[in-house]
Amino acid sequence: MNQPVLLKGNSLGLTMVLDPGMKFDQLIKAIEDKFVQAKDFFNGQTQIALKIEGRKLDVKELQNVLQVIAEKTTLTIAYVIEDDKIMETSFKDVLKKIQEREQKRSQSMVDERRKGDGQFYRGTLRSGQSLESDASVVVVGDVNPGASVCAKGNVVVLGCAKGYLSAGCDGDDHAFVAALDMQPMQIRIGKHIARSADGEPEKKKKLFGRSKNNDNQPMEAQIAFVEDENIYIEPISKALLNEIIV
């Protein structure tokens, strides 16, 4: 590539394309220079997603990159995406719908607290740990068995959801729970509760059920929602999002 660092916008925030062969000490200096030069490019953005292409960074290298961005810009990197094609398809739509829905709520709820656009948590929640939010929440990591997430808005897990997930904790039955890998111990949406062993498969939807996948096949991103006083789980699709997220 002609330039060691390229920056370009995407629907979730910013894509950074890195030279795959340059030594990292030279590359980090090029990243610093690029962000200083491109400060007007961000147009007042603050919390964004950063997608990295062209090169795989280890943990220490990624920390150095994030530190440079924090020192040289006003940006807050809410989460990092590396070669995550699922995130760029299914969950791009989910995050967009969350933002649209929260904005509508904030405009119509005069007597209630403004829920805002939600919050991000990066890391794995382990057994005994809990995360609560007055808005929607996106967990960039796994929710292990015994861990819990409770949000007054929606819950999105960019990882494996094996713990206790509660959306619409203030009684909102229109909230939803979504995950890249949906294997929860329990889901609660509004006043409705379902556990992993509950329910029998129906013709089109499944109450806490899913098809058996071959071990070599990737799990589908899924979304849980309330319909006809029951909690159902289905693979995420644009048609389903348009139907249940209004």
Structure description:
The protein has helices spanning 24-37, 59-72, 85-108, 238-244; strands spanning 5-10, 13-18, 47-53, 76-82, 119-122, 130-133, 137-140, 148-151, 155-161, 164-167, 177-182, 186-189, 192-195, 222-227, 230-235. The strands form three sheets. It has a six-stranded mixed β-sheet with strand order 5-7-9-11-14-15. Strands 6-8-10-12-13 form a five-stranded mixed β-sheet, with no helix packed on it. Strands 1-2-3-4 form a four-stranded mixed β-sheet. The protein is elongated. The termini are far apart. 24% of the residues lie in helices and 32% in strands. The protein is built from four helices and 15 strands. It has 246 residues and is α/β, with parallel strands linked by helices.
Summary keywords:
single chain, 246 residues, alpha/beta, 6-stranded mixed beta sheet, 5-stranded mixed beta sheet, 32% strand
Helices and strands in order:
Elements: E1 5-10, E2 13-18, H1 24-37, E3 47-53, H2 59-72, E4 76-82, H3 85-108, E5 119-122, E6 130-133, E7 137-140, E8 148-151, E9 155-161, E10 164-167, E11 177-182, E12 186-189, E13 192-195, E14 222-227, E15 230-235, H4 238-244
Parallel strand pairs: 2-3, 3-4, 5-7, 6-8, 7-9, 8-10, 9-11, 10-12
Antiparallel strand pairs: 1-2, 11-14, 12-13, 14-15
Helix pairs in contact: 1-2
